[in-house]
Amino acid sequence: MTRTVYVNGDYLPESEARVSVFDRGFLMADGVYEVVSVLGGKLIDFEGHMVRLKRSLSELAIANPLSDDEYLAAHRDLVARNAIIDGLVYLQVTRGNPGDRDFAYPPEDTAPTVVMFTQSKPGLAEAPAAKTGWSVVSVEDLRWGRRDIKTVQLLYPSMAKMEAKARGADDAWMVQDGQVTEGTSNNAYIVKGNTIITRQLSHDILHGITRAAVLRFAAEAQMQVEERAFTIAEAQAADEAFITSASAFVMPVVSIDGAAVGSGKVGPVATRLREIYLDESRKAAV
């Protein structure tokens, strides 16, 4: 069964969807994206993703082509048309098609390109890895300096992910100046004693929507949170480690560069935060 996708206001079979070869998303990675999880046919953290989308577009001076209500309607239409129960909706907005290739931005009246598509992920919230945990390896962070903008230029994170797989791990934690920035597509955390530690917001990391929600839930559960950078050695010596993302939610990390974290098994803090996040997110889903 072919998927129905959204391209600039039209709903099309994926085999008929087209974007110009001159689109700046293709030529220059000149665009941004968001991914919204779907659980039980409803959208998780949708409002937060729209806030970040508008910030990313503003930082790149790309006009926002749709209203929040229009984005929401399109997301819901795609979920319904593709019969998504559990899965993901990807949204990409590029600077559009200027009709030719040029480093300079096209005229301001160039229409942005909007593409949306779904991925069906049955049992997304019941991933077996949540019971066993991930292994991660460290790699040097060679990305550009504005990681807070969620752009479509994902080549280096893809390279880092492939390096991790080649080394027998599930993911990579990127390191800059001796300190962990984040994972290839997620925010990184350690737990020491009663304290959850994660890098503070800046241009160095993505301002994760799941991150914001998890930290809020942690505070409400009377857990102590410290926002600061940490090293790989500190992470290896921690009691627990985990990551957060829109598609993995809260995922425990049990091994870093071959060294077991804590007992080497999934710990109580990550387990509890995953439970809270999923429960509260389902209640607030749209």
The share of residues in extended strands comes to 25-35%
Number of strands: 15
What helical percentage do the residues reach?
A: 25-40%
Measured between the Cα atoms of the first and last residue, the distance is 26 Å
Spell the H/E element sequence: EEHEEHHEEHEHEEEEHEHEEEH
Oligomerization status of the protein chains? single chain
Largest sheet: 9 strands, mixed
Mean pLDDT, nearest integer? 97
Apparent shape: globular
Figure out the total of helices: 8
* Low-pLDDT segments, ≥5 res: none
Task: Produce a short descriptive summary.
It contains eight helices and 15 strands. The chain has helices spanning 24-28, 46-59, 68-81, 129-132, 155-166, 209-220, 232-236, 268-284; strands at residues 4-7, 10-13, 31-39, 42-43, 87-94, 113-120, 134-140, 171-176, 179-183, 187-192, 195-198, 224-227, 240-245, 249-256, 259-260.
What does this molecule look like?
With 286 residues, the chain is of the alpha+beta class. The chain contains eight helices and 15 strands. Strands 7, 8, 9, 10, 11, 12, 13, 14 and 15 form a nine-stranded mixed β-sheet that branches. Strands 2-1-6-5-3-4 form a six-stranded antiparallel β-sheet. Helix 6 (209-220) packs across helix 8. 40% of the residues are buried. The mean pLDDT is 97.
